[in-house]
């Protein structure tokens, strides 16, 4: 795992308040962090942005989680929402593991891995799907012709979930939580692609959750994020470049009428690459 670059290890304390944990992720620019038990000094789990989404939806009376899902042993703390979303388990991998090991894990749907050294309790860094995509671009000559394959030929991606831009951002987050997906397309009244929203956009509520009750049209415009689209004729390498450059985790294929016809996620890309390398 030495080849996969990552910034400083960001971790949370089990007894941090939920607000403190969320603000730490926002400040450090990460979407998830391992949680340490101060009493034992060991990491006990992972909290990521989806867990915070689940908590916010619980407050608003939406989403899948209920109060009984919270660990309230020490009050409302970071440990209360460990894997509340039930979507991102605390997966560990040895520092000596290979890039192929990471590709297998990420291609199977994991979003981040805790890298351990000198024992499973010593987490030295976190690596994500985006870290692996960046590595692939830096070393694209090592992958033969795999990155030159057209996405249309590989038949990757799925039908996109859409939400009308008149709906509240909170509604979109609730849909993602209920359907256990990470992002949706925002469409106008004619069904044309207008923008996108993902669970990571909860960061926009770092000062107040009131921003989640505005229409998606205004929410998207306020974020000033790039809307990344691709063609079925684009290569796997070209799609990876756009994902990395835009710091996004999904891209859309749009038809001649402007309607989104397919969404391709980072998991789709990595699963396709794995299938090409290990047919």
TrEMBL record:
InterPro entries: AMPK_gamma/SDS23_families, CBS_dom, CBS_dom_sf. CDD domains: CBS_pair_SF. Residues 1-66, 223-279 form the CBS domain. Keywords: CBS domain, Repeat. The keyword Plastid does not apply. Pfam families: CBS (PF00571). This is CBS domain containing protein. It comes from Acanthamoeba castellanii (strain ATCC 30010 / Neff).
